[in-house]
Amino acid sequence: MLEYHKLTTEQVNPATADIDLCSAEEIVRLINEEDKKVAQAVGGCLPEIARAVDAIVDGLKQGGHLYYIGAGTSGRLGVLDASECPPTYHTDPGLVVGIIAGGDGALRNSSEGAEDSAEMGRQEMTSRHVGLHDVVVGITASGSARYVYGALEEARRRGAVTIALCNTDPAALSEEADISILPVTGPEAIMGSTRMKAGTAQKMVLNMLSTASMVRLGKTFHNLMVDLVPGNKKLADRSVRIVMQATGAERPEAEQALQAGGTAKNAIVILLTGCSPEAAAEALQKADGLVRGAVALLGGCC
User: Fold this and answer.
1) Using one digit for the tens of pLDDT, what is the confidence trace for 199-254?
2) Which residue, 149, 161, 99, 96, is CA-closest to 127?
3) Are the beta carbons of 181 and 165 closer than 8 angstroms?
4) Does residue 138 sit in helix, strand or coil?
5) Which pLDDT score, from 0 to 100, does residue 115 have?
6) Helices (H) and strands (E) in the chain, counts
7) CA 38 to CA 200: how far, in whole Å?
8) Is 253 tagged catalytic?
């Protein structure tokens, strides 16, 4: 039987023992002091995070998917990261998928009991036909959520790469993980409230996993998000500014290239090489979506 009282995430933090006697400013200062420890904890996991990125990129290039699965705060953070990939990097909604115990209803209404069912986690992997080339990231602060454990166990059995993202070391979930990312952030300011430091660390790691993977897949040119979807006025304006920044073109020229090419990537290749929209699209396809590669194929430089 798991002894929860021994988990780091369930310890009492002596630095905040009298937080209920503090003023508002004293409370937020205490929380801020605890939050400063998060980046350092994540920094200690960079080699493992990089290994995970390499696995994700390799899987996605071979037609696989990236799945985040968790319960409570951990599940919500996974869904958040996954949901931001399509507008930011123009990915198919099914490429990066967030799964939360209790289903989408649990995003707004707590369904904490769902995390205790390993069988439900296994069923999630089975129903989605998870297998070879897929990557599954199990997220649980305690490292012990049975729902997540069951999911990783089944995913690994089906040939997927499995990654554990937990805030305890050792973590039970590591038993079913090919790669373990364990940023230990210590006891929370409020005992057991892992939506705080643990959740912040998880968000930071997920940002790294998705962002680094998308960069490696050619979704950026320099540090510009050249595959964004201009779904509102702000993003439409950003698309124009991205083309201007990438090419040195003035706004009217950038807007004209965007209209001709249809996407920021095409517009950038058009402006950097002087090619036709059709040639830009063909070169990008040959270069696996990499702007630098497409420009080189067309004899340009960047």
Assistant:
1) 999 999 999 999 999 999 999 999 999 998 898 999 999 999 999 999 999 999 99
2) 99
3) yes
4) strand
5) 80
6) 12, 5
7) 7
8) no
Residue indicated by tokens 């320099």 = 222
Predicted pLDDT at 4? 77
Catalytic residue selected from 10, 84, 255, 282: 84
Q: Count CB atoms within 10 A of the CB of residue 95.
A: 15
Cα–Cα nearest to 168, from 202, 208, 128: 202
Whole-number percent of the chain with pLDDT over 90: 90
Task: Give dist(CA 55, CA 135) in Å, integer.
Answer: 7
Please give the Cα distance from 164 to 139 (Å, whole number).
6
Q: Tell me whether residue 3 is one of the annotated catalytic residues.
A: no
Residues 122/146, Cβ–Cβ less than 8 Å = no
What is d(CA 188, CA 245) in angstroms, rounded to the nearest whole number?
Answer: 43
Q: Which residue of the set 34, 115, 124, 176 is catalytic?
A: 115
User: Burial, 149: exposed, middle or buried (Cβ in 10 Å; 0-12, 13-18, 19+)?
Assistant: buried
